[in-house]
Design goal:
Pathway: Lipid metabolism; sphingolipid metabolism; Sphingolipid metabolism
Shape: globular
Number of strands: 7
Catalytic activity: sphinganine + NADP(+) = 3-oxosphinganine + NADPH + H(+)
Radius of gyration: 22 Å
Bound molecules: NADPH dihydro-nicotinamide-adenine-dinucleotide phosphate, 3-Dehydrosphinganine
Distance between the termini: 77 Å
Enzyme class: oxidoreductase
CATH topology: Rossmann fold
Number of domains: 1
Oligomer: single chain
GO molecular function: 3-dehydrosphinganine reductase activity
CATH superfamily: NAD(P)-binding Rossmann-like Domain
Function: Catalyzes the reduction of 3'-oxosphinganine (3-ketodihydrosphingosine/KDS) to sphinganine (dihydrosphingosine/DHS), the second step of de novo sphingolipid biosynthesis.
Length: 338
């Protein structure tokens, strides 16, 4: 006869073992199911935010891999210059490289943009977006509304127009890639106008991943850390010092590095794509019910995060914010009272 504690221990270890075996079996089945790698060659790709930063780097990389590319943003002069760079990167001369000037933060604008592509796109990257960092109590209703439009609504409107076009034109193996951020997985001081919208994009990716199975459209989301882009230079002008301190002034990857990692993840069929280890820790800590990238290994990485994240949050991030209270009081609060 086993004693009660011994019985429990043996039960627990058996359950753990069964979970490990099941996870390995499941992840290899899932891996086999998506073993057909996605290829850029011959695809018709539509990229919002394609005139600069990440969007332009994705356009150049996909063109170099043989895709037809349409870049989209609001400013035509920037698009004209960018389209030249994408053409120069193309693998062959007969690939289509075009641009559409449109504001995709409305359903009307996004629909018009997708409909003015010369061929119905089969692959869409929603890279348009941008932050206006600042302290929560200093930001206005208009700042929050702009965040909703620029970050969430551009993704929503573009994927709505794209899913309609793909489903109704019988596009097979369509793909929609949404761009979130590390801040779609965690919250950070200074980003209340932006982070929640990036969390919403995660929710959109989960909803669409499920529903667009109807049309054979696959949905993926990318969670980049800092990208050394023109947009970053712009946002750093209003970014609180404390935010910059916590995210690390020297941190960041070039748009080309991000594009490379993103396309690698797209090719592998990863649902949530990351290109830096910190975000990988946050991704695995926030896996929820979505598909994992590497089955059991995702759970092992989550274990590292389980230890490392509370350390970072308590001893680095929150501590830096507490230390900033006095300066904040002098710089922001008393200025308001005056
Ligand atoms: N930079 C960073 O540190 C990080 C960025 N990200 C996200 O990655 C994505 C790319 O960022 P980044 O490379 O910095 O981009 P940039 O800010 O450098 O460029 C943004 C692009 O989006 C276009 N755009 C903005 N609003 C609209 C709109 N309403 N309709 C159409 N086009 C629009 C801009 O052109 P135009 O203004 O002419 O329309 C431009 O082409 C964004 O979603 C961003 O939130 C995520 C993590 C970190
Ligand atoms: C154990 C874990 C240690 C982790 C340390 C990581 C600390 C940094 C977290 C914040 C990084 C923000 C990147 C995205 C920024 C962004 O989306 C904007 N720049 C918008 O353009």
């Amino acid at each position: 006869m086993l004693s009660a504690p011994a019985l429990l221990t043996s039960l627990a270890s058996r359950t753990a073992l069964a979970a490990i075996i099941l996870s390995i079996v499941l992840s290899s089945i899932m891996g086999a199911l998506r073993s057909k790698k996605w290829k850029a060659q011959g695809k018709h790709v539509f990229i919002t935010g394609g005139s600069q930063g990440l969007g332009l780097a994705v356009a150049e990389l996909l063109a170099s891999k043989g895709a037809n590319v349409t870049i989209c943003s609001r400013t035509e002069s920037k698009l004209r210059e960018a389209v030249g760079k994408v053409k120069a990167a193309a693998k062959t001369e007969d690939q289509k490289v075009e641009y559409v000037a449109a504001d995709v933060s409305t359903f009307e604008g996004a629909k018009r943009a997708i409909e003015s592509c010369s061929v119905v796109p089969d692959t869409v990257f929603c890279c348009a977006g941008g932050a206006k960092p600042g302290f929560f109590i200093e930001q206005t209703e208009s700042d929050f509304e702009k965040g909703m439009r620029t970050d969430y609504w551009t993704c929503l409107a573009t994927s709505h127009a794209a899913a309609n076009a793909m489903a109704r034109n019988n596009v097979t193996n369509g793909k929609i890639v949404l761009i979130s951020s590390t801040l779609g997985l965690i919250g950070l001081i200074g980003y209340s106008q932006y982070g929640p919208m990036k969390h919403a994009i995660r929710g959109l990716a989960e909803s669409l991943r499920s529903e667009l199975i109807l049309y054979g459209i696959s949905v993926q989301a990318y969670f980049p850390g800092t990208i050394l882009s023109p947009g970053l230079e712009e946002e750093n002008k209003t970014k609180p010092k404390i935010t910059l301190e916590i995210e690390g002034e020297e941190e960041g990857l070039t748009p080309a590095q991000c594009a490379k990692g993103l396309i690698k993840g797209v090719e592998k069929g990863h649902f949530f794509i990351t290109t830096d280890f910190n975000t990988e820790l946050f991704r695995t800590a926030a896996l929820g019910a979505g598909p994992t990238n590497r089955g059991l290994l995702d759970r092992v990485i989550a274990l590292i995060g389980w230890i490392a994240i509370p350390f970072w949050r308590n001893l680095i991030a929150d501590r830096a914010i507490r230390k900033h209270r006095q300066q904040h009081k002098e710089e922001v609060l008393s200025a308001r009272l005056r």
